[in-house]
Amino acid sequence: MRTQQISANRFSRAGRGLSPRPASTCGQTAFAFWMLILVLATGWSLPVGADEAVPADAAPRWWKGNLHTHTLWSDGDDFPEMVAEWYRTRGYHFLALSDHNVLAVGNRWMAEQTVRKRGGDEVVDKYLARFGPAWVERRGEGEKAAIRLKPLAEFRCLVEERGRFLMIPAEEISDRAEGKPVHINASNIVEPIQPVGGGTVVEAIQGNLRAVRDQAERAGQEIIAHLNHPNFGYAVTPADLAQATLEQHFEVFNGHPGVNQQGDDKHPSVEMSWDIANTIRLDELHAAPLFGIATDDSHNYHSHPGEPKASRPGRGWVFVRATHLTPEHIVRALKHGDFYASSGVSLREVVFDESAQTLRLQIEPAGDATYTTHFIASFAATDDQPARIGVEVAASAGLTASYRLTGEELYVRARVTSSEPPADPVWKGQRAEAWTQPVGWRAELAGDQ
Ligand SMILES: [Zn+2]
Ligand SMILES: [Zn+2]
User: Fold this and answer.
1) Which CATH code of 3.30.420.40, 3.40.50.1370, 3.20.20.140, 3.30.499.10 fits the domain covering 61-106+151-448?
2) Please, what is the Cα angle at 115 between 114 and 121, to 5 degrees?
3) Residue 229 alpha carbon to ligand 2 centre in Å
4) Tens digit of pLDDT for each residue in 43-98?
5) Structural domain spans, the chain
């Protein structure tokens, strides 16, 4: 009986997807037949209580997710359920819809004219085609026609799958300081957080992070905050990144084409800013380094790869190593640095062996791509020379790479670069990459205290 149930579950997943066509009955019969043969031949069955989605002996594994996403609830151009479906059907395990200064709660109607102006004439039709008239709520006629934006609490049960796909309530706290945008994502929140402002960029970052921390304490819930797109409007300098020490995570990659990811002749790239900030933190402030997250910051769901300027989904994500797909496990692993950021390269393994002081990784091959792993470190200032920042200390080709720290580094991290571009490049010449977190600094920091 137990075995039959599990077979049925397995089959129903094989048939899921965006396609409205039912899975073929012929395929069902063939599958059931072969499952029966397997069961008879091997006597295979799972013990009572065993569970594929939530096993009792869950081991750590990688979960893929995007923590920065917009919908019609703020300035995105699609309905939240449609956006969740985009991610669910493309192998993501978790998603945070993070609209500006709002949580998807309460009763909210939007003029259909506004919806169509945002996403084009087909937006409502696509929504109707996927979820149907029994789900989509409309009222009024002509210019008065309006459509209801569903709160997360109402639609999450339609898209979530136990152990497979999880929605995490989130917000992009969108503040300004010194005339510049200061945006911070807070994921796994229970109520919206209004921007607190500040006399300087650093004050605004610290103030908003305190507000996040206060909510987490009040709610008794794990919340993860990360600073978004520091080079958007060149708002957050590497020194700001360093000094706002309540901040532990930031976006080393953001897929929006307008966020100056690569910097310019006056401003360092976001990746170089990461090394500058982490060097200042470890060498001068005796503070923990920042961890780097990759996100989409997706707004536009109706344009196609190759079309310029749109901020489409599928460009940046994290793989988090945790035993369970729950908000708390994902958030705790992120806080501990047990994750890597990616714009198209997947890693099978990332291990920092504390006793051997060695960072080791293994790359998941894809097609004909070849890979180069760059190990990047910073070194403290000495009497003779200033700090050396973001220095490539080793590079190697192939699917495995390792680096043994000499003891001189403030930290080391790895960037893996593919020979291939990502599926939907943000800029010309972009290559798919993965970024691991800085390691080798914990002992040093403990020694300072
Ligand atoms: Zn933003
Ligand atoms: Zn955003």
Assistant:
1) 3.20.20.140
2) 110
3) 8
4) 555 555 668 889 999 999 999 999 999 999 999 999 999 999 999 999 999 999 99
5) 2-42, 61-106+151-448, 107-150
Phi then psi dihedrals of residue 87, to 5 deg: -75, -45
C-beta of residue 230 within 8 angstroms of C-beta of residue 273: yes
Q: How far apart are CA 422 and CA 341, in angstroms?
A: 14
Determine the pLDDT at residue 41: 59
| Centre of ligand 2 from the C-alpha of residue 31, in Å | 44
Q: What's the 68 CA to ligand 2 centre distance in angstroms?
A: 6
What's the Cα-to-Cα distance from 12 to each of 15, 28, 33, 129, 339, rounded to whole Å? Answer: 5, 9, 15, 21, 31
Q: How many angstroms does the Cα of residue 117 sit away from the middle of ligand 1?
A: 21
Q: Is the pTM of this model over 0.70?
A: yes
- Give me ligand 1 centre to Cα 303, in Å: 20
pLDDT score of 104 more than 80? yes
Please give the distance, rounded to the nearest whole angstrom, from the Cα atom of residue 176 to the centre of ligand 2: 14
pLDDT at residue 440, as a whole number:
97
Please state, as a whole number, how many other Cβ atoms lie within 10 Å of the Cβ of residue 264: 10
